Amino acid sequence: MVAGLAFGSEIKRFGRSRLTRAAIVVIMLLPLVYGALYLWAFWDPFGHVNKMPVALVNADKGTEVKGQKINAGAEVEKSLADDKSLDWHIVSPAEAAKGVKDGTYYFMLELPENFSSAIASPMSGKPEKAQLRAVYNDANNYVSSTIGQSAMAQVLNAVSTRISGQAVNQVLSMVISAGAGIEQAADGAGKLADGLDTADDGVKQLATGLTTAKTGSAQLRTGSQQLSDGINQATDPILALTRALSGLGGNTAQLQQSATALADAADKAGVFIKTQDTMLAGIDAAIKQLTASPDPAARQAAEGLRAVRAQLAQASVPATAKQQVVAASSAAATLTEQLRTPGSPLATMLGQVGATGTDLTAKITQLRSGAAQLAAGNATLDDGITQLSDGAAKLSDGTGQLRTGSRELATKLHEGAGSVPKWTDQQASQVAETIGGPVQLDASHENRAPNFGSGMAPFFLTLALFFGALVLWMVFRPLQNRAIAAEVLAIRVVMASYLPAAAIGLCQAVILYCVVRFALGLEVAHPIAMVFFMMGVSLAFIAFTQAVNALVGPAVGRVLIMALLMLQLVSSGGMYPVETTARPFQVLHKYDPMTYGVNGLRQLVLGGIDHRLWVAIGVMLFIWVASITVSCLSARRNRLWNLDRLMPAIKI
Questions:
Q1: Model confidence pTM above 0.70
Q2: Which InterPro entries does the record match to this protein (predicted)?
């Protein structure tokens, strides 16, 4: 019984021959398949993507803008070739398509014919985006397509930054050139403002003078009209007289006719007077005779004649008039005689008077017309001065606004000219590069993994330790039947199988650590703590797999542990974030033993220790205690043999 409980009792079975002893060594080295071989194979795959053959097709024909030749495709081709981030092969479109199809090239990048023209399109006023055409073939290798897409994103960003920097540089050159023009315009606007200041002062003086002139022109208009009216009133009688004199002296024949007519009229008036006197004398004689007649009728007739004579006497020409008629007749005869005699004094005088009257009439008429024209001209002048004064007032307002506006324009142009940068070509290029790529990522990594292998080491190491534990119980017996039959304490039965396996498990952990740490060059933040943690994980996994085998039997246990291994691979979150997996695996993640092994190793390898390490240690300790407990209970249960144990349904 004591021999069965000895530490080496289970090991002694493998010490009988060289082959069995070699099996123990192989068991110790098996975790290296997962923990070292896989890490070695995928230690830094992203650091060797420059060995991936990739096709580059440059079909760009270039372009010319404003006399400047642009060949952006050649620049991109040279930039990619110099970068050497991938193994670029410059080939034709047909070769590239064939190579991607048959796997010669993992993918291809094509620069189209209009690449340069699209790059230069913003300067032509018809902007369009330049296109880069990438063709992948996932049948060649899906990961290579993923790497290619990531590389293309970087290439696109680099090309966009460079091209946009060139475009911005050209725009800045135009802006800087425009700045000099704006400054000249500002100087011109300042001179214009100074001129408008002088012009505005002159216009205001003009407006003031025109206001005074407007008042004077109104007075002049009124005075000239009054003068015209006064001249007309004063010259009306004179004009009538001069016109009469002009008519008198200018037509002596008419005067002769008038004098003759006057003489005839005087003669007739004399005849009339004589006839009247004769009639009165006859009436007087008739009255006398009738008065002398005794006949009453005669007397009555005489009375009637007296009444007629009285009326006739009343209507008769007075003596003065008779004298005037006689004088007029004499004067008319004399006048007629003088007018009929050429060269007489009267005819000469009348000719002079007529000529003087005509001339005087013309002068007076000219005076009246001049006064009227003067009044009309002054009225027109007054209207014009009024309009000119109003216009000058508006002009004064306008020049004032123009003066203010020009001064503001000059100020703003000077401000604008001052705002335009005055950069050198080097400064403009630096600014263009900054604007072309305005955002630069300043990434920092806490607990940075130097390569892919370092980041995946916690997962592969945990997987290797679990695999080592699985293989151990394929060789070792989880519980020794002889000790159980001897009714040894359950804990001693469990330890009799566990301790030899644990010793080999510790060797597995130490060997795995040393190979990964020193042979592969894994950088570890906490090396001592890591080796002890790996030993603890190995002990917990060995206890866990022993408990499963002891609980359900070695045959079923091995199948169950392998199934558990598959579940732990996808639910531990060792390769991809667990949030990217299916929902059932997210639930299993919290109960997966490998989860805590991966979390603890991540913090020990990369640094940044926090509560997750202590949780991992606590979980491993809990798994060890729970597993030993389950193994002990299984050992006590196995003291009782039944038909299922004697004839198991499954044998492996």
A1: no
A2: ABC2_TM, Phage_infect_YhgE_C, Phage_infect_YhgE_N, T7SS_ABC-Transporter, xxxLxxG_rpt
